[in-house]
Fold these 2 entries.
Entry 1:
Amino acid sequence: MAGSFDIYAPVARRLIAPLWAAKDRSPYLRLLRDLEHSQFFSVEEIRRRQLQKLQRIVAYAYDHSPFYRRRLDEFGYRPGDPFGFADYARLPVLTKKDIRENLAKLRSQEYPAEQLVSNLTGGSTGQPLKFYHDPLRLESRKAATWRHNAWAGYRLGDKAAALWGMPRDIPHGRKLKGRLRNCLLDRTLVLDTSAITEEKMREFHREITRYRPRVILAYAGSLNLFAEYLASEGLTPPRLAGLISSAEVLYPEYRRTIERVFDAPVFDRYGCREVSIIASECAEHDGLHINAENLYLEIEPPPGTADTNAPGEIIITDLENRGMPFLRYRIEDMGRLKAGSCACGRGLPRLEVAAGRVTDFLVSPSGKLVSGAALTVLLVAQTPGIAQAQLVQERREEILVRLVRDQQVPFDEQLMRGKVREFIGADVQVTFEYPEEIPRTASGKYPFSISRVTPGFMREADAGVD
Ligand SMILES: [Zn+2]
């Protein structure tokens, strides 16, 4: 059995959690029970409910958001007229640019500004994107998160450890109330990944060995790093029920390393700040189940392709956020829907995310998109002498390769240049830089590939990596 028997966990789950929720007048536990029930509805029933919710949120957006009133009028929407998924698919997408330029008009006028919860994301451009939720949406986000936690064997009241780059995401702070809540209910030990050092990892390992968490929640890259560190130092990892990976792409080699080192399964979770959990893995690890009670997800095939199985742009509608409706939001990630049903019995549709953010793709001089995630394997994993690499593309004709060399193994610049050209384009110019280390972004992420080149079919004039 993973972890030791934790006598306090059931008390926290059955007593402290409901009391605390009642004190905060928070309905997330009721919403969680609903989600745990509806996840086993049939595919047809889930679709039927989605369409109802879709019609409701569109009608709401029309009535309360000036941006959507105008957009839906232009689109020919008539309040009260029923519509289907196919009609809806013709509504123009909502871009990040739309949000930046129309924030005040997108917001629901039904809520006084001070009642809305504002939120920020670094976004794919590195420029902050501000948006809003109504207070109830925060509750359904929390419920969806706890539903997925349970899939990974982590239930309310259990002890957890987190490797996280944004300390404000972890629900406790320095304030007494936050500390008390963490001690009684959230029970999470945190390693701040925005500034990881070997000493910090060693200390964190000591702490979790004592603390004995049931799960670890972490950014995929940070988790991989920690696993590599434990293995290289010969440190015994804690016994866990599972690990929850999010916020970064969980590359197959990350998963292999993490599962080998911890001898426990990794549950991948894909989401973003704008809509929270989008899709996540169950114990079958066979695609990610879409959070379909809260979100409606479409795949927009790449222009000019007839291949319906090719990954396309992920388009998301938040069925619950009235504070600021997101109707057909282009999140700038690619994916495809997975056919068939999952052995776990859940009716929630499944998604396969294709190699991370759209902006992770490099653009060849001919306009071809090359997946950065694939290149980590094709280009880096298979080229000797590299400790870490980053590809930066400022202009279409040029790739800057930043490399931290592995001191033990010689590195061949010519070989690497040849491979970059093989995958990105024969006419691309390849230059090298050898920094001491590859810098993390402010939130502790390692962008592997950064491209400031935008292929023609994307609307954004600027691109980068969060
Ligand atoms: Zn499943």
Entry 2:
Amino acid sequence: MKTIIYYFSGTGNSLFIAKALKNLIPDTELIPIVQALRDKDYVIKADNIGFVFPTHGLTLPIPVNQFLKNMEVSSANYFFAVASRGGTIFRGFPIISSALKKQGKKLNASFIISMAANDPKLKFYHDPAKEELELLQKNALMQLEQVQKVISNREDYHMSDKSGVTFTKNSLLNYVLERIIPFMTHYISPKVKKYFYADSKCTGCGICEKVCLSEKIRMDGDKPVWQKNTTCYLCYSCLNYCPVRAVQIHSKVWMKSYTTKRGRYPHPFATVEDIASQK
Ligand SMILES: Cc1cc2nc3c(=O)[nH]c(=O)nc-3n(C[C@H](O)[C@H](O)[C@H](O)COP(=O)(O)O)c2cc1C
């Protein structure tokens, strides 16, 4: 029984999850969503299809949404999704369900795994201590053993959101969470200019260009330039992998930098090459 896991990962958390599942589930192949989009490789031939990705603005990252719209999944009859998150609720599964429903399929299983936050802009962002990371990792691996059992038995199972927040009874709030917020995250937010820039610490090493999953960054001599006409995937790899923390995010609205005084988070086992190899 062949399983293909499509994954997207800005700083290695979701990659960690995808790799752990590959180790736990026999005959599993990992395919980076960024590569599938680049190659327009949308026809999937497998018995089980999984999606592993981070939470972005309570919902799916932009490239995952793009992939779901184009994929062709007729050969498969079991589908699962795993969202990693840094601390809030995740409300993106209905988008996956409706993409599958259009092809006469359903999302059989869904899971949310808490990992360290990689968005230094978020209020709850903090540099995780070694002990916190070890605990998150241990808990994640325990949950992934459950995930593996569900998938191997091809069960229908939807993990309840452990944040303890459920809004299922409030239809207006549900509408906001499942329609308005994804619309903002996928279509409005990339157009509203949150400026990435490299400050005076930049050494011109080019790592930001290397890890930029949307190919938005191009080096101009020894300076990274964020190309205006390319949609940013908001992976924050440039921000988190810059070895001298020179990459910053500036808000035009608030006229301030969000990140100069904040730390950075790449997953301890995810190298620049691991991230860049998704392209
Ligand atoms: C642009 C952006 C938005 C994010 N939004 C959320 C969010 O709404 N809720 C949350 O819990 N975590 C959020 N995060 C944190 C990530 O979901 C979390 O750290 C995830 O595990 C990162 O996975 P990755 O390393 O595979 O990219 C966000 C991260 C980024 C970069």
